[in-house]
Amino acid sequence: MSTIFTKIVEGEIPARIVYEDETTIAFLDANPLAPGHTLVIPKAEYERLNDVPAEEATALYETIHRLVPAVEAAVDADATTVAFNNGEAAGQEVPHVHCHLIPRFEGDGGGPIHAVAGEPPELADEELDEVAETIADHL
Ligand code: AMP
User: Read out DSSP for 63-76?
Assistant: First the structure.
């Protein structure tokens, strides 16, 4: 079963496509959180960012980098929230990697990325040191 975004890539369902190259495609979100809310995806179907091969991840970032100023200019935005819901627990609904480009405006009433997680944990210095080391060990 292909994802709804693969159906867009294959032209089986309509979308307001704003950019396309060999590896990536960008189109307007069907339920925009702001005018110009755009999704950037790899054409190939990977569920999470963790699954995307390095070369395609680079291509994905290049498209994001290209799209951000275009989206901001198109809707005269003051800023952009650029974010992935990476996995179901983070709120990902469509199991096909996608980057949200959400134009932001002074006083739009939205929050920063800091508002998306739960209650901030209280971590001692030793715990922070251990987490940092463990992350480094997994690279
Ligand atoms: P997420 O919660 O990060 O998985 O977000 C999925 C996003 O895909 C939502 O913002 C939806 O509005 C958007 N979406 C779902 N179906 C379509 C579609 N057919 N065309 C464009 N955007 C879509």
Answer: HHHHHHHHHHHHHT
Q: Can you say whether the dihedral through the CA atoms of 11, 16, 21, 26 is positive or negative?
A: negative
**Threshold 0.85, pTM exceeds:** yes
Token pair 């251990």 is found at: 130
Transcribe 15-83 into DSSP letters: --EEEE-SSEEEEE-SS-SSTT-EEEEESS--SSGGGS-HHHHHHHHHHHHHHHHHHHHHHT-SEEEEE
Confidence at residue 138, expressed as pLDDT on a 0 to 100 scale: 97
CA 31 to ligand 1 centroid distance, Å: 7
Examine the pLDDT at 20 and tell me if it is beyond 90: yes
Closest residue by Cα to residue 34 from 110, 87, 131: 110
Q: What is the mean pLDDT of the chain?
A: 97
Give the residue, out of 2, 5, 41, with the most ligand 1 atoms within 8 A of its beta carbon, to mutate for a pocket test: 5
C-alpha 22/C-alpha 42 separation (Å) is: 9
Which residues are part of the catalytic machinery? Answer: 98
